[in-house]
User: What shape does this take?
Amino acid sequence: LPPPLSLPPPLSLPPPLSPSRSLSPSQNINPQHHHIHRVIIVVGLIGNITLIKTLSSSKSMRNVPNLFMSSLAFGDLVLLVTCAPVDASRYLSDEWLFGRVGCKLIPFIQLTSVGVSVFTLTALSADRYKAIVKPMDIQASNAPARIVLRAAVIWLFSMTLAVPEAVFSDLRSFSIRSTNETFITCAPYPHDGELHPKIHSMASFLIFYVIPLSVISVYYLFIARSLIRSAYNMPVEGNVHVRRQIESRKRLAKTVLVFVGLFAVCWLPCHVIYLNRSYHYSEVDTSMAHFIFTVGARILAFTNSCVNPFALYLLSKSFQKQFNKQLCCCCGALAKRSQSQGRNRNNTHMASLRTTNHSVASLSFIHGKHVCQEDSV
Assistant: This one.
């Protein structure tokens, strides 16, 4: 398929050419990557929707970290609904299917979603830092309102950073030197310049990966030092309530750290490929190794948008209970619905039989004929 040579992060990577155009006949394969995309989309939708519903329906779960996690889950939903199908379509068609408007809108949505993910993780780390290192800073009663406002600011900031992608992305022409083929695809800049791709890829890598993860690392260094000190200073027969509070904060900090680790691992290959591609922007890599590594990196990136709910399920017992309750309620509602539909069908069937019997009897009386017993059953 024609390589979308440069979409904005998280997918600002040159996806590989379709095997039929990029590989020799002996290397030709029939990719089924759209099936993997389909599984990722379905699993991600189920997990993130259930996570949002669980955190919003239970009053006990409406705390500061969970509000941020809901925002994170919503960002993952946006990425899965809009970007994953677009990526899968490139293995099914040799053309960009979404027009000039889609070329500007989809990169904007993609970059906004990545910004929401990484900046929300940074805000979560800052919240854990305040809760563990500065526990005496008592939160005001309007903390949930302030957190919602902060999450809205993160979304607005991410959208602002994504505006240049919508402005500069356009349908551009590229050519494959080995075959002299020309194709049109969505890219944020033409292929004849060398400076723009390098600046774009490096800025994206710094803003959406290096700087946020560096800030998160600093927060967690202070958190680790504070937890070590509290462990040493805690009396052997200390207050049980204080011990439980410290353990709870440690578990929550561990959960956020797992989220950050998943993000770092899943998005690093994408940024590496995009950086490499920006320094060879005028060339189209048609090798099998590039094809496999790029597909793997993109699938890994999308996978990050569906693993957080399951990681939270494994790490949080309270969330696990609420999650199971939501699933049981859904299953119970579906079972009741199917039973009621079955009863309605039976009632309708019996009513139709009674109506039919009545009609047959009336007709037989009018025509003065006898009706067989089988007709009245």
